[in-house]
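Next up, sample data.

:::
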Amino acid sequence: MSNISGDGTLTPSEFRVAAFAFAERWKSAVSAFPPWSWLSRPKHPWLSNEVEGYLALENVCRLDSSEENHVGCCTGSEEPTCSGDSEPIDDATLVQSSRDNVRYYDFHVIYDYSYRVPVLYFRAYSGDGRTLLLSEFEGDLPADSSEALVKSKWTFITQEVNHPYLNRPWYKLHPCGTSECIKLLFQSDALIRTTSGAAELYLLSWFSVVGRMVGLSIPFKMMKWGNDA
């Protein structure tokens, strides 16, 4: 893997390699939860250096407890249950479910050619497939992220933009501050950019910032650098 740029951006090839590494690390760290998968995208003949796909985490549900709003664990048609062997993700647990009385979420990490950074797209929908407005699922978000998603220059939401490949309304965390944020994160140690896993570390660092805004905090195990992760 080539050294990443010092301006906080990634090349398309670096993004692809980092995406596969991120998905594998996530699967190893949180094996009891939904895995990220690589989805192919339509080819564009006028783009010779395009990324062939994007990361997807789909069919994730959030349960409301009787006393407070949080994410619960579902296992198909069984009653909600949580595994004590897995490390919790933030204050909530993300799971797959076919139940109709919960809210569902899809998350996509897509390379943006204009900003040359990854972008987090997501959508929320009900059991009957109806797309939910931000006001309908805002209560699912971590308490400290709601204001940041509206006002922060790093992670503010762009509401109901068209998904670049699916041509349907999705939310996204705008990438205008991503390169500056990553540049600051890496600025303290310039040698990080020249390590063999620099691009993977880039994606982990980026997701540690944007993921928590939508309740997808990275478990500590994923951030342990080295062969033991």
